[in-house]
């Protein structure tokens, strides 16, 4: 019988990459594995909602370098470095190929993984991320993350204080749950009364500079031939009506990249598109469709 959840640690350059996997027993030869990649200040506990909706499916989710339990890994922290870590993770866990789903910055990592290791990726599900985000000249890129970046410099006297911070987050005003609380607890590092978020600001700052499609990313995305589903949230990081991606920008990429299909996900923001039941329902639908296609298509 497959264990529902197991933590892991895998050797990568400079130390160990941590994370968790669901239903870790090696799948059959024709069964797809799902690799799920979290966002810029998050962790692998972004993904329990999705894991619940993929019964019987092996799913692997790392804490990226510089975040959560992997925050002791040294830099550099660039998107290509994350992709290299994930290729090593797949080797360590004896996974030849995967259907890769990435949220926010994790979607950018997914694109680089597919570009640098095309033999390891069957298809991509990009969740409110992975398409270049234009950056205004002279504007600090960290500003686009708002409180997500600000909290990395804060300290909290108790675990309860940090849970209260997240409970008051506009993105979760209608979606607070025990799973969001678990996500927040896992994010804490240090000791009271100087508890702090686990993501390293240096890692976040390095990665946010890469989200505009620079350093060859836009060309790497345009050159992909694997099937790509892009799921767009209509509301932003603070549940504001201005989305991270507007419809026109997503449509432009769909028009220029024939393998990319855009899907609108109703009534979610940038967080709840993966960290709520209704958001995860829609992500799971896309992942299941990609799994079915990968199992029909010989490698």
Number of domains: 1
Quaternary assembly: single chain
* CATH topology value: Rossmann fold
What about the largest sheet? 8 strands, mixed
Class based on secondary structure composition and strand pairing: alpha/beta
- Arithmetic mean of pLDDT: 93
| CATH level 4 superfamily | Alpha/Beta hydrolase fold, catalytic domain
Anisotropy-based shape: globular
- β-strand number: 10
User: What gyration radius follows from the Cα positions, in whole Å?
Assistant: 18 Å
Quote the distance from N terminus to C terminus. 28 Å
- Major β-sheet strand ordering: 1-2-4-3-5-6-9-10
CATH top level label: Alpha Beta
Architecture, CATH level 2? 3-Layer(aba) Sandwich
Strand content of the residues, in percent?
Answer: 15-25%
What is the H/E order?
EEEHEHEHEHHHEEHHEHEH
Helix content: 25-40%
As residue ranges, the low-confidence spans are none
Describe the structure.
There is one protein chain. 33% of the residues lie in helices and 17% in strands. With 299 residues, it is of the alpha/beta class. It has one domain (6-135, 199-296): Alpha/Beta hydrolase fold, catalytic domain (Rossmann fold, 3-Layer(aba) Sandwich). Strands 1-2-4-3-5-6-9-10 form an 8-stranded mixed β-sheet, sandwiched between helices. Strands 7-8 form a two-stranded antiparallel ribbon. The longest helix has 20 residues, at 277-296. The protein is globular and about 55 Å long. The model has no long low-confidence stretch (mean pLDDT 93). Residues 33-182 form the AB hydrolase-1 domain. GO terms for molecular function: hydrolase activity. Keywords: Hydrolase. It comes from Cryobacterium glaciale.
